[in-house]
């Protein structure tokens, strides 16, 4: 398994396993994705098309931007806790959801623990990368890491998302500090931006 590559074949098998016991959704951009119930019962969500933003509910910190296919809440049925993350559609999205307890039952019935482990390993790898880039680092190092991540997005996604807003929501660094560093990088011809969007990176110094 290449841990840097999304495990699409395993994800497809999980999708087929869970779909028959699920409720579909079709949601517009900028809408919260939820199971539409007043129950606190945890759910599993499968994003089949579109792009989502994942926020930590406790402080609304932007944790990640994810493109379909994507599963959130695969382990929610294993531990007794409430949903810790909120999803917002960045583009129109389709998918389905089901109770996390049903997810666990279906995976057990279909013997898809290997597929579940592959998906969770990929998620864990990305969280480890995020921690290494952001936790305990100074403001410039965090901003540099965010710019490098954005440079890896496809052009369509990168040209939709404002650099300053994305970095501020993902790190909690003040807008004034983010603006100052971005202005210095543009002046030094280290990055190219257009209308607040990242166009390209020429070279980023390791220190500010």
Question: What does it look like?
Answer:
The chain is α+β, with helices and mostly antiparallel strands and 208 residues long. It has two domains: 8-132, Jelly Rolls, CATH 2.60.120; 136-201, Arc Repressor Mutant, subunit A (Orthogonal Bundle). The protein is 40% helix and 25% strand. It has seven helices and ten strands. The two termini are 37 Å apart.
Q: What's the SSE pattern?
A: HEEEEEEEEHHHHHHEE
Radius of gyration: 18 Å
Spatial separation of the terminal alpha carbons = 37 Å
What's the structural domain tally? 2
The named CATH superfamily of the largest domain: Jelly Rolls
List the helices and strands and how they pair.
Layout: H1 8-19, E1 23-27, E2 32-33, E3 43-49, E4 51-56, E5 61-67, E6 70-72, E7 85-89, E8 93-99, H2 100-110, H3 113-134, H4 139-151, H5 155-158, H6 163-171, H7 175-187, E9 191-194, E10 197-201
Antiparallel strand pairs: 1-8, 2-7, 3-6, 3-8, 4-5, 4-7, 9-10
What features would you highlight for this structure?
Arc Repressor Mutant, subunit A; 208 residues; 7 helices; single chain; four-stranded antiparallel β-sheet
């Amino acid at each position: 398994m290449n841990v840097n590559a999304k495990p699409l074949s395993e994800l497809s098998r999980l999708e087929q396993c869970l779909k028959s016991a699920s409720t579909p959704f079709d949601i517009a951009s900028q809408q919260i994705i939820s199971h539409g119930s007043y129950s606190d019962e945890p759910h599993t969500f499968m994003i089949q098309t579109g792009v989502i933003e994942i926020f930590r509910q406790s402080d609304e910190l932007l944790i990640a931007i994810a493109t379909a296919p994507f599963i959130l809440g695969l382990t929610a049925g294993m531990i007794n806790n409430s949903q810790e993350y909120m999803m917002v559609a960045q583009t129109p999205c389709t998918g389905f959801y089901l109770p996390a307890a049903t997810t666990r039952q279906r995976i057990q019935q279909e013997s898809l623990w290997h597929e579940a482990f592959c998906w969770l390993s990929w998620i864990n790898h990305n969280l480890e990368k995020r921690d290494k880039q952001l936790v305990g680092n100074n403001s410039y190092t965090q901003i540099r890491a965010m710019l490098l991540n954005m440079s890896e997005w496809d052009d369509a996604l990168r040209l939709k998302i404002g650099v300053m807003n994305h970095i501020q929501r993902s790190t909690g660094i003040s807008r004034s500090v983010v603006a100052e560093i971005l202005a210095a990088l543009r002046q030094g011809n280290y990055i190219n931006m257009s209308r607040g969007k990242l166009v390209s990176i020429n070279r980023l110094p390791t220190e500010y």
